Structures are given as structure tokens and as C-alpha cells.
């Protein structure tokens, strides 16, 4: 469990390209400008009782995009990526926290361009 609020995690991985993103999980963990490692830890800490999701979005009012990862009852994770400026709304199911964190990091970096 991360257990730290408002903490920057940069354990050797490159942070997401843009600034002012935030990741918030249901249990109150909060990470500013999350790195791939921080996303992995947030996702890995999810469970099906009291910490079922994490949301990543710009740190602004009325954000135009977001991504979320939620625990599925039958195992795995549902990943939702929505970007209204690019008319994108994807929903996928995955099981590997490594792949989810890596894919999200790439998707988040593309929001900066």
C-alpha cells in the first residue's frame, strides 16, 4: 500500500511527459505527475473490497480526458481511457499490472502533444 498522500513517486522510471496530472485511488492515495512505477504501485494496491479503482486526470477543473483502472469481480482490471478533445473512448480488460502501467504511461504522454 502506498499510504502516502500528495507524494511524488519517481523510482527510476521517467515521469509522464506533461505536468499537473494526478492519480487518485479510492482509498485516498494521491500521486502528482505519476511515473510508470507509481502507476504500477497504485494498480497493484487495488483490491475488491475497499480500494477498487484509481483515476488519472489533469489537475484542473472540468478535465477533457481521464483514465481509470478498476478491479473486476471475476479477476483482472477494466481500463477506461476517455479524451473528449480527440473523440476517444476505449474500454479494455487486462490482467498484467506491468502492461497496464506501461500502456497508461504512453497514453498519458500522448496527452501532452
Structure description:
This protein has 113 residues and is an alpha+beta fold. 20% of the residues lie in helices and 31% in strands. The chain has two helices and six strands, in the order ββαββββα. The protein has a six-stranded antiparallel beta sheet with strand order 2-1-3-4-5-6, with helices on one face. α1 (36-44) crosses α2. The radius of gyration is 13 Å and the shape is globular.
Question: How do the SSEs run, as a string of H and E?
Answer: EEHEEEEH
- Detail the poorly predicted runs: 1-18
Report the principal-axis shape.
globular
Structural class: alpha+beta
Main sheet strand line-up: 2-1-3-4-5-6
Sheet with the most strands, sense and barrel status = 6 strands, antiparallel
What is the terminal-to-terminal distance?
32 Å
- Extended strand count: 6
**Chain-averaged pLDDT:** 85
Radius of gyration from the alpha-carbon trace, in angstroms = 13 Å
Number of helices: 2
Helical amount: 10-25%
Strand percentage, roughly?
25-35%
Give the topology, please.
Layout: E1 21-25, E2 30-32, H1 36-44, E3 53-58, E4 65-71, E5 77-83, E6 88-94, H2 97-110
Antiparallel strand pairs: 1-2, 1-3, 3-4, 4-5, 5-6
Helix pairs in contact: 1-2
Protein traits:
113 residues, 6 strands, 6-stranded antiparallel beta sheet, alpha+beta, disordered N terminus, 31% strand
The gist of it:
The protein is α+β, with helices and mostly antiparallel strands and 113 residues long.
